Amino acid sequence: MYDIALSVAACARSGTRADVAWMVSPTVSDEALVLTPGGGRIGRLAGGAFDGLLTDLAARHLSAGRLVNHSVTEIESLICQLPVGSDVQFLLVPAEQFPSQTWPLLLDHASIVIVTAFSEDVITDVQVNPAGADSRRPMVSVESDVITTVLAPTPRMIIAGIGPFAEALAAQAALLNWKVVVEARPDAVAGLAATLSSSDAIVVMGHEVEKSSGCLMAALASEAGYVGALGSHSMQQSRADWLAYRDVVDLSRVHGPAGLDIGAKSPQEVAVAIAAEAIATI
User: Fold this and answer.
1) Total-model pTM
2) Buried b (16+ CB within 10 A) or exposed e, 179-207
């Protein structure tokens, strides 16, 4: 749901209707789908397997949300990998039924608790509050007339660079269930970095001082909880000089050379060292 928060907030400001759908059973994640009038879709839910079902319901422009119960068809099963005939449940709720604080909390990548009350599948009330500091995993609790959804942001890692070390780090981060983006274009890193929160990481690689330093500048302008810079001590100094010339002198957030000092040499070993340092820092 974090990925769609900005779009929903924009809809709210413009007065555009938006219906938000997320799965509450049998699997739980922070995925969500936004449906707007005219068939617009933002976000992704269960690989898109149930988009048609949810779009048809949203097209009714109901004044209150619904608890949607559905059995997986053969075609849906091929897309979402759930067994044919298994029961799935979704909540489809108009954005206006959420408290106004919902979208700022999600934009800040805060863990939240959504308490949804319903009667005969009609959503009667939605309450949203920050979750406790120990809430790091999405979960759903379904009771007779209340569904409690806990959402926690999945850590993200942006890897600015390409090559064996980038590939090894991407694989290591994926093993930790992080969302990973490997970006080879320095000019695209700034936009990606701007979306990072304190639970995310960015690692700058590359042998070209100007390009990698530009990426590092973007990283320092972000809210990333971990900023790593791969490269020799001489490369670190060259980047520092490049940044200082542009009035960026506070490099206290930069971990460089990136990674815990465990004697790592191979790309795979360096990836483990960087991932461990990121975990310890964030």
Assistant:
1) 0.71
2) bbbbbeebeebeebbebbbebbbbbbbbe
